[in-house]
Write a structure and sequence with these properties.
- By secondary structure, this protein is mostly helical.
- It is built from 14 helices and no strands.
- Helix 4 runs antiparallel to helix 5, helix 5 runs antiparallel to helix 11 and helix 12 runs parallel beside helix 14.
- It is globular, with a radius of gyration of 20 Å.
Amino acid sequence: MKRFLKIYLDKPELAGLALLIVLVIIFQIKSNSFLLSFENIRGVMGLLPEMALVAIGVTILMICGEFDLSVGSVFALMPMSIAVMLGDGVPFTLAVLIGLGLCAIIGLINGYITLQFSIPSFITTLGMLFIARSLTIVISGGFPPLLPDDLPTWLFTDYIWQGSILRMSFLWFAVIAILAAAFLSLTNFGNWIRATGGFNEAAASMGIPVKRVKIICFMLCSMLAGFAGLLQVLRLGSPLPSIGEGLELQAVAAAVIGGTALSGGIGTVFGAIIGTLLIRVIDNGLVLSRVDSNWFKFAIGVLTMFAVVANAWMGKMSRKIKLEAHK
């Protein structure tokens, strides 16, 4: 039992990985072996980067001890603002940089208001959720603008090579995920993030610039959400004002299912990816198994609650074992 707890506390994402393997086996059987077919995996992997990038940003912020409920709206606002700029003749590269800058400003506002006025971040970002979604609809006029035909969409949407299972968007996602994982695990700033989320007061007393760390995490979270939205819009070919609705809750669920602690200080990029894959497999597997799609949100809700309860129980058992060891 003690060994199991140690493994779980060191690698909480392994529980999600084990559950993912079990679900893949079950859905593979229920779908008459279609779940792991080439075409189906190709479809799932094509959608993975868009949600996984948002989940990675949310995970980093949760490790830091904060939440961002505005990521779904930022997911829609950035590509919509880029589409409007492109319509006014702004070059694509410049429009993307301005869009990322807009996302960074949104994250800065979220972080500044949260920390300056000691407001819970889920309240601050809930307000930003409505603001960003409203701006998305206003600047679009309620109708999705057309994207120019000469955009370098191949850089994001084409398959890596003919007959490949992966799109170029997956390469962007893989590079960002590797950099984020290295950022969290191999840098002093990554240690600051974990220390800030694990024990805010102790981190401040050690000289860690807690406010700066949190604001940077808010900015990174918003920028990843905006970039993920751009990937989806380039794949779909149209910046719909409604994209990303409910995505913030799925991103939080993916982070928690992947082993990220609600209290902060614990979590990994790999766990966020595992959580995202679990959600995508459940969604896809229910459809292939001919189960009513309305059960999808029910399944994610149950899985999230189970992950939270399991994390709390494991933490309690770990503290109990440590106390017994000191006696």
